[in-house]
Amino acid sequence: MHVQVAESAEGARQNVREGVRTMGANIRPYALAKEEGSALWFLGTLTFVKATRDQTRGAFALIEQVIPVGFASPYHLHRAEDESFYVVEGQVSFVCDNRWLKVGPGVFVFGPRDIPHGFRVEGTTPARLLILATPGGFERFVVEMSEPAKELTLPPPAPPDMSKLMTLANKYRIEILGPLPA
């Protein structure tokens, strides 16, 4: 299997956009293994874009993420898509509409659009999640907010560019509500 590592931010965006030219009206089956797809560093995670809106006729986007222990997403909501999570590895606490649920491998969590949600990685090992956005389009936010992964490891810890995050969240109809509730 071949792992695709983008060489530049534009290269990563090009990899995602290629679905328009190569799969748009002529959708073709394909398969990607664990850690295959455009490899990105997204907000402190190692992220692989598995399927884009353009590759699925708009139906969904699928993203694989490796997330370090202690990582917490902001409390947020999506106006344009539902966000679903499948925990492959690790322990994750999800909050949806102020209700907490601690889960492990094999658990599916659904975060409907317009409902505030977020998550935090617990335990002693990184988590691996599959994130399904329906309909597709969320992957474009991820790509624009990311930088190409220089290697297939977690990125060095760094604070997010909050100005860029808020601008892109607004562009993609994601509302950042603040830190996760207690």
* DSSP, total strands: 12
Helix content: 10-25%
Number of domains: 1
From the 3D structure, determine the CATH topology. Jelly Rolls
CATH class: Mainly Beta
How many separate helices?
3
Key phrases:
182 residues, seven-stranded antiparallel sheet, 3 helices, 12 strands, globular
Can you put this structure into words, describing what you see?
This protein is an alpha+beta fold and 182 residues long. It has a single domain, classed as Sandwich (Jelly Rolls), CATH 2.60.120. Helices cover 18% and strands 37% of the residues. The chain is built from three helices and twelve strands. The chain has a seven-stranded antiparallel beta sheet with strand order 8-5-10-3-2-1-11. Strands 7-6-9 form a three-stranded antiparallel beta sheet, with no helix packed on it. Strand 6 (91-96) and strand 7 (99-103) form a beta hairpin. It is globular, with a radius of gyration of 15 Å.
SSE layout and pairings?
Layout: H1 9-22, E1 38-42, E2 45-51, E3 61-67, E4 75-78, E5 82-89, E6 91-96, E7 99-103, E8 108-111, E9 117-122, E10 127-134, H2 138-145, E11 147-148, H3 162-171, E12 174-178
Antiparallel strand pairs: 1-2, 1-11, 2-3, 3-10, 4-12, 5-8, 5-10, 6-7, 6-9
